């Protein structure tokens, strides 16, 4: 979506643009900012067609030789940031369906001047709804819809409006980037390709990046990552992408660690046939981190961020790890492998340990980690575990501001002891079904040590089987904007 914001005083609608205005159920059909010659006929139309006020109703009419879209907004008392986001998404889908390519949106009629959050959420919703899943059907290409050219007419400070609107578009764009990566089939999205995507992103913003190949991964002592990678013919990659918001400092204020499992069969603890169908999405954590970094590169917070992505496949061959194996790790702890399908926590262990090695002051990891979190929270909220309540509070608040819900699980000694039970190693990677999402997160936490750390399990929120108002079926890009928002809030603090 291409957009610009102008002050209402400078508004002079082009003849070829379609005007978009919103109407609430309060009887006041016309808000400030709508062109004078349209106010009276618009008010009469809205009065005559009462149902047009209903939330989600869109009507295309012609008034005084002007093409006009009337958007029903429902009750103004219920006009929340979530409602603004959903309305923005619904408007975007309507414009695409009607093949509208140039529009002029009167923000006052949508009460988008009510707060910065409403305008940002509306812009984010429009951008999220613009995403289309790539298709590989012969003779058909995705993304053929012509981008909408949007001119938003804003009452007040247009520079402030531009900043807020742009921030919403950036958040949506970063999320859509994560969706694209997740939805790419695993034969097109290998660890090597994922690394190439990270290199391309770094090139766009002239950012620092390192990609460890198999030899360097082994030499660095990332034995847990290598243990998982042995089962695949595809070589692993370890990606470190950096944003230096404080270029005069060598310290890393935070590290974002994403699970880059580009395909997961379960290894010798083989998944079911149906359980394997969507396992291209098991790199959703890595996708979220790359989407977050795009947002961070655009927003430029004065925070030093290291994005860390351990990436491999989890398959079966004669070299693949087996249940009962004992493996080493970068953090120095030995691990008894009780379940080869609990591999994500193994590669994240090396990722988090590396974040500690480079001196990150805080660590946030995200992963499609457990089926247990789906049982506990469904696809509504992301499960979280932490060793630091202040960092957890910051991340939850960032999720609220980004429209992504996070639920904190308990973290106490009784749960931590479960991952420390092994007769032959320091840790075990799968204590059992009980509290599975908690113990999986706490296993990763063993490698964070005393560094403030939050783990985000997006197994439920990272993929959806049916389409919603904001996303088609498939990868959702969950936590991309939350991670970026958390980093931006670190600058505020």
The global form is: elongated
Give a count of the beta strands, DSSP E runs of length 2 or more: 20
Overall mean pLDDT:
92
Structural class: alpha/beta
Instruction: Provide a count of the helices.
Output: 14
Instruction: Give the fraction of residues assigned to helices.
Output: 25-40%
Strand content: 15-25%
Specify the CATH homologous superfamily of the largest domain.
Zn peptidases
What layout of secondary structure does this protein have?
Elements: E1 2-7, E2 18-23, H1 36-48, E3 58-63, E4 66-72, H2 81-97, E5 102-106, H3 116-129, E6 149-154, H4 158-183, H5 191-205, E7 208-212, H6 214-220, H7 223-229, E8 237-244, E9 254-258, E10 260-264, H8 284-299, E11 304-314, E12 326-327, E13 335-336, H9 344-357, E14 363-367, H10 371-377, E15 382-386, H11 389-402, E16 406-408, H12 413-419, E17 427-428, H13 436-445, E18 453-457, E19 463-464, E20 474-475, H14 480-492
Parallel strand pairs: 1-6, 2-4, 2-5, 5-6, 9-11, 9-14, 10-11, 13-17, 14-18, 15-16
Antiparallel strand pairs: 3-4, 7-8, 8-11, 12-13, 15-18, 19-20
Helix pairs in contact: 2-3, 3-4, 4-8, 7-9, 8-14, 9-13, 11-14, 12-13
């Amino acid at each position: 979506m291409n957009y610009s914001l102008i002050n209402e005083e400078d508004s002079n609608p082009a003849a070829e643009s379609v005007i978009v205005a919103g109407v609430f159920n309060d009887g006041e059909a016309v808000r400030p900012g709508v062109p004078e010659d349209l106010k009276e006929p618009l008010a009469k139309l809205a009065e005559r067609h009462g149902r047009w006020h209903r939330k989600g109703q869109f009507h295309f009419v012609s008034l005084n030789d002007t093409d006009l879209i009337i958007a029903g907004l429902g009750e103004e008392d219920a006009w929340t940031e979530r409602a603004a986001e959903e309305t923005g998404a619904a408007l975007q889908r309507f414009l695409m369906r009607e093949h509208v390519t140039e529009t002029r949106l009167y923000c006052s009629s949508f009460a988008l001047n009510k707060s910065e959050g409403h305008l940002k959420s509306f812009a984010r919703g429009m951008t999220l709804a613009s995403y289309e899943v790539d298709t590989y059907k012969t003779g058909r290409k995705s993304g053929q819809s012509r981008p909408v050219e949007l001119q938003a007419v804003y009452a007040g400070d247009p520079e402030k409006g531009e900043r807020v609107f742009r921030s919403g578009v950036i958040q949506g764009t970063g999320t859509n980037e994560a969706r694209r990566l997740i939805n790419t089939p695993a034969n097109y999205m290998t660890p090597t390709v994922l690394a190439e995507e990270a290199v391309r992103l770094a090139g766009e913003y002239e950012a620092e990046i390192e990609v460890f190949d198999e030899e360097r991964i082994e030499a660095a002592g990332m034995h847990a990552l290598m243990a998982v990678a042995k089962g695949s013919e595809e070589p692993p990659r370890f990606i470190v992408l950096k944003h230096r918001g404080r270029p005069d400092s060598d310290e890393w204020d935070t590290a974002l660690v994403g699970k880059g499992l580009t395909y997961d069969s379960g290894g010798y603890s083989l998944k079911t046939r149906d359980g394997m169908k969507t396992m291209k999405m098991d790199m959703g954590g890595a996708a979220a981190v790359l989407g977050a970094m795009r947002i961070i590169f655009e927003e430029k917070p004065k925070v030093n961020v290291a994005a860390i992505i351990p990436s491999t496949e989890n398959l079966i061959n004669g070299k693949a790890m087996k249940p009962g194996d004992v493996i080493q790790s970068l953090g120095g702890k030995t691990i008894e492998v009780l379940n080869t399908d609990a591999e994500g926590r193994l590669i994240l262990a090396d990722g988090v340990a590396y974040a500690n090695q480079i001196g990150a002051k805080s660590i946030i990891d995200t992963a499609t980690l457990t089926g247990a979190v789906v049982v506990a929270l469904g696809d509504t909220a992301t499960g979280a575990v932490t060793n630091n309540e202040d960092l957890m509070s910051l991340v939850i608040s960032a999720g609220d501001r980004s429209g992504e819900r996070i639920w904190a699980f308990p973290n106490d000694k009784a749960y931590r002891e479960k991952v420390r039970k092994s007769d032959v190693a320091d840790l075990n990677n799968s204590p059992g079904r009980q509290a599975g999402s908690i113990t999986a997160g706490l296993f990763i936490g063993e490698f964070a040590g005393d560094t403030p750390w939050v783990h985000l399990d997006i197994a439920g929120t990272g993929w959806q089987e049916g389409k919603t108002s904001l996303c088609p079926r498939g990868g959702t890009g969950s936590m991309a904007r939350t991670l970026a928002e958390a980093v931006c809030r670190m600058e505020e603090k």
